[in-house]
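Protein data sheet
==================
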Amino acid sequence: MLNSEEDICKLIQEDEKMMNVLRAAKSLELPDWWICAGFVRSKIWDTLHHFKDRTDTPDVDVIYYDQENIDKLKRIFPNIPWSVKNEARMHLKNNLPPYSSSVDAISKFPETATALGVKLDGNDKVILTAPCGIKDVINLEVRPTLFFTESKDRAAIYEERIHKKNWKSIWHKVKVYHLATEGSRE
C-alpha cells in the first residue's frame, strides 16, 4: 500500500526502467532538474489499480531551471518520448510571472495528482517533491491545484485537460473533481 512519500520513492526505486530513465536525466547534470507529472502519477495509479503491465505515457517530462536548452537525452535513450522544458522560460509560454524554481513551477501544474516530481540524489536515491502533497494522488483523486482555481481562464484549462486526458478510461477508480460545479465529481 502507498501511504507516504517514502512508499512512493521506494516504489520507483524498485522499478529498473524508471531508475534507468532517472539516471539518464541525472547524467545531464541539469540545474534544479526533475522528471515530473505522468511519469510519477501513472506509476502510482498503475500500482493502486494492481496493473501487471505499465501504462504507456505519451512523454517523459523533464524540467530544469536554467538559461540553456538541452537535447542530449534523445541521444542517450532515443526510444523514450522526452519532453524537456526549461522552467526559467516556461512562464513566457504560459503568460505568467516567472517561476522561482522547478518546484515552484510544479506547484503550478493544473492537477494536484500531477504536481509531482522525482530525481536522484548523489547516491542514486529517489527524491520526491510534492508541493501540493500526495493525498490526492494516492487517493486516486484529480483536483485542480490552488493556482488553477484562482482565475476563470486557468479553471477552463483545467477542465479542458481533464476532458482531453480522460484518465478514467485507463484508471477506472480515479475520481475527477470539476470546477464548474463545486464539489462535483465523476
